[in-house]
Sequence to fold (233 residues):
Amino acid sequence: MKKRNGAVVVFSGGQDSTTCLLQAINNYDLVSCITFDYGQRHKEEIEIAKSITKKLNVNSHKILDINVLNDLAISSLTRNNIDVPSYEEHNDNEVPNTFVPGRNILFLTLASIYAYQIEADTVITGVCETDFSGYPDCRDTFVKALNKAVCLGIAKEIRFETPLMWLTKAETWAIADNLKKLDFVINETLTCYNGIKGYGCKSCDACYLRNRGLDEYLLNKNKVIDSLKSKLQ
Fold:
């Protein structure tokens, strides 16, 4: 398959963004990553992101200090005095306190500026509307609206790519396995809201969704792969 031009991956070092990065390495000639230090509770993700990009020989990895977000956005991921809720406390009718308001607005906008400067034509983000915690800035309508606004604002066509948008976590694991990187994603990434690498704390929303998806994939590989293929057709 002919590779496309450059892409910037919004990279946290978690399962989703690492899967997106692995795909991008296969699909693009030049891949750059951008990781944001916004004073997050689980700052370990920044070191994990550095480690992963080195192991995968990524062309360039930019770490951007945007601690101004920490000053403005009140969340259990930006305040140590707010407890990260367990999955049992999750309410589908409420936005969880792990939501960082404005985070993806800022991430995607800044990633687009970076893409503009390095002449990349795509920004890739691992947001997902299928297996997610209910964040409004992970929805397809939001991403498309912001993409249009950014292109108008910089007078350049930069495409926001969301390869996981309609996939379940089990299907995301299937992608990692297809790329021969299942064990790598299991062991090297950090998805946990409490900052624990690999399988994580096993109680927060992020761990629950990640581990439930992995169990589903391992138990029903053929079914999950067939479902993934049908979505990718």
In short: The first strand starts at residue 7 and ends at 10. The mean pLDDT is 91.
